[in-house]
Amino acid sequence: MIRLSSVAVVAVGLALSGCAVLKSPDPIQTYRFGTVPAFGGVDQGSVPSCSPTGVNLRRVEFNTAARGDQMLTATGNETAYIGGARWVGQASTLFEEALQDGFASGAPCLRVTSGPLTRDGLSLSVDVRRFETVYSAPGAVPEVKVAVSVQLLRRGDRAIIKDARFDIVKPVTENRVGPIVAAYNEATADTVRQIVDWTVREVAAAPPAQD
Q1: Under the phi-then-psi rule, with left for phi > 0, alpha for psi from -120 to 50, and beta for the rest, what region is 67?
Q2: At residue 199, what are phi and psi to the nearest 5 degrees?
Q3: DSSP secondary structure of 18-78
């Protein structure tokens, strides 16, 4: 049985006979996503010979309610966090690490960096707008939903060369934290794979920079 805690946290103090009574906090179990590779192991014999194209990966934007270490759920218009469970780090950081790993293993002809911007070249903007466990009704078996918008920009004038949106839905096998985390892993791998494949295609088709 999953325990949900309201997004709005209310602190209640209780004093008996002039002494504060403190309740021991519930134990917290931490979980990780991004462990399912978006691409299989790289066979060095199959890596194409190419001069990598440089692409700057801007800092990933993330839905405010979901970017921290708590697991966001939604049932209709109501939101809550799963009690007793946390991500091992900030969800935004774990997602960005999974995305960087995806580019490293799935785009050998791109040189993706997150360092300082230079005037020439291309820039990739990634905005994770939804990253949550969605219930059709209280206690139902949920789905994990991820929605991401991406833009490929020319850094010199910030012109948008191409944009796209990816909506990923992964069913959860049962209403427990373990299967929910497994669905997040699958959803993240699917999302990363689609972003990387899209970026590879659009960078190859991008018009050359104007002098």
Answers
A1: alpha
A2: -65, -40
A3: TEE--PPPPP-EEE----S-SS----GGGSPP--PEEEEEPPPEE-TTTSSSEEEEEETTE
- For residue 111, CA distances in Å to 36, 53, 57, 108, 188 come to 22, 6, 10, 7, 21
Tokens 């219930």 — which residue?
135
pLDDT tens digit string along 144-156? 999 999 999 987 7
Cα distances (Å, whole numbers) of residue 170 to 5, 71, 134: 23, 15, 10
Backbone angles phi, psi at 178, to 5 degrees: -55, -55
pLDDT digits (tens, 9 = 90+) for 85-137: 999 999 999 999 999 999 999 999 999 988 665 556 899 999 999 999 999 99
Six token digits for residue 194: 């689609």
CB atoms near residue 129 (< 10 Å): 14
Backbone angles phi and psi of 50, in degrees to 5: -155, 160
AA identity, residue 158: R
What pairs with residue 30 in β-bridges?
A: 86
DSSP at 202: H
Structure tokens at 81: 């966090």
Prediction pTM value: 0.83
Q: Is 192 helix (H, G, I), strand (E, B) or coil?
A: helix
57 in Cβ contact with 97 (< 8 Å)? no
